[in-house]
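Hi R.,

As promised on Friday, here is the backbone we talked about, encoded as structure tokens. Could you run it through your design pipeline when you get a chance and send me back a sequence?
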């Protein structure tokens, strides 16, 4: 945890966290030599899109939904990931840890694994999501309840991804 950055967030009457702490997320990523570029704002007021760059090259896209209490919890999604650089420089671990710190309890992470051949092949062989290369990283960061969303909404919600929640 980054000292002095995390603020206390209130909770609604149904226990839905108020919002993802975007400030923590961005600070942790920037502190890891990842450049964060804010993209065009979507129509949904609680949603933000970013491109993450490492060494001047595309690393990933990141979408953050801060939540809409008391109805919807927040989530973070990483997609279109440059797996070669992510794995070589340990940036997949950086992304997972930063997301864990920014999310509140029971909020969700989505991590697309298209291009992560090790994870893809493991899942095709029937390995449980938490036992794959990417799954182990998410578990080490603190995420629980991993599931493989191999056809997310019939591909209307992007490519195959692992989903987990902060316990």
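Update: got your reply. Pasting your designed sequence below so it's all in one thread:
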């Amino acid at each position: 945890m980054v000292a002095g950055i995390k603020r206390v967030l209130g909770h609604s009457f149904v226990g839905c966290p108020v919002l993802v702490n975007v400030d923590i997320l961005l600070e942790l990523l920037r502190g890891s030599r990842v450049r964060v570029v804010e993209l065009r704002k979507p129509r949904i007021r609680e949603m933000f899109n970013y491109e993450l760059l490492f060494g001047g090259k595309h690393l990933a896209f990141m979408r953050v939904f801060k939540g809409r209490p008391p109805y919807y919890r927040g989530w973070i999604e990483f997609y279109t990931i440059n797996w070669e650089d992510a794995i070589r420089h340990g940036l997949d671990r950086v992304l997972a840890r930063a997301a864990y710190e920014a999310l509140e309890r029971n909020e969700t992470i989505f991590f697309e694994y298209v291009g992560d051949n090790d994870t893809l092949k493991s899942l095709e062989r029937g390995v449980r999501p938490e036992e794959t290369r990417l799954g182990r990283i998410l578990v080490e960061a603190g995420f629980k309840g991993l599931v493989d969303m191999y056809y997310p909404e019939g591909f209307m919600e992007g490519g195959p991804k692992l989903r987990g929640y902060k316990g």
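One thing I noticed while checking it: Confidence is low (pLDDT under 50) at residues 1-18.

Thanks again,
M.
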